[in-house]
Specification:
The protein is mainly beta and 133 residues long. Helices cover 3% and strands 47% of the residues. The protein is globular and about 45 Å long. Strands 2, 4, 5, 6, 9, 10 and 11 form a 7-stranded mixed sheet that branches. It has a 4-stranded antiparallel sheet with strand order 1-3-8-7, with no helix packed on it. The chain has 1 helix and 11 strands.
């Protein structure tokens, strides 16, 4: 059974930190790029960060650069999103997703677009992050 489970969300004050985890099972983790996305109330889901399967290249939305760090542990089939200096505008439901990566196909190049809705094979259930001012 394929599972992609996001966890680690919660309520934090502005300036605080949270670490989100995305645990994968049931598919070949090493063959997939993993992206983090978020959706705030009344807004479309958008890309936050992405990490490639091949060389672990990382990508970030401009709004989180310098504050968020994505990493992965291949041994644990897990991807993490360390979120520091959180702001109220970071409040959203955060999702992780997995898109297959090939030699000439790098899904992370498109994480900032809505193409991941079609590229991703799997989506996690989401975890709520609430940042109070």
């Amino acid at each position: 059974e394929v599972q992609l489970q996001a966890s680690g969300g919660g309520l934090v004050q502005a300036g605080g930190s949270l670490r989100l985890s995305c645990a994968a099972s049931g598919f070949t983790f090493d063959d997939y790029a993993i992206g983090w996305f978020r959706q705030a109330p009344g807004k479309e889901r958008g890309g936050v960060s992405c990490i490639s399967s091949s060389d672990s290249s990382t990508y970030y939305a401009d709004s989180v650069k310098g504050r968020f760090t994505i990493s992965k542990d291949n041994a644990k089939n897990a991807v993490y999103l360390q979120m520091n200096s959180l702001k109220p505008e970071d409040t959203a439901v955060y999702y992780c997703a997995a898109a297959p990566q090939g030699q000439s196909h790098i899904p992370c190049l498109y994480f900032g677009t809505n193409k991941w809705e079609a590229l991703a094979d799997y989506w996690g259930q989401g975890t709520q992050v609430t940042v109070s001012s």
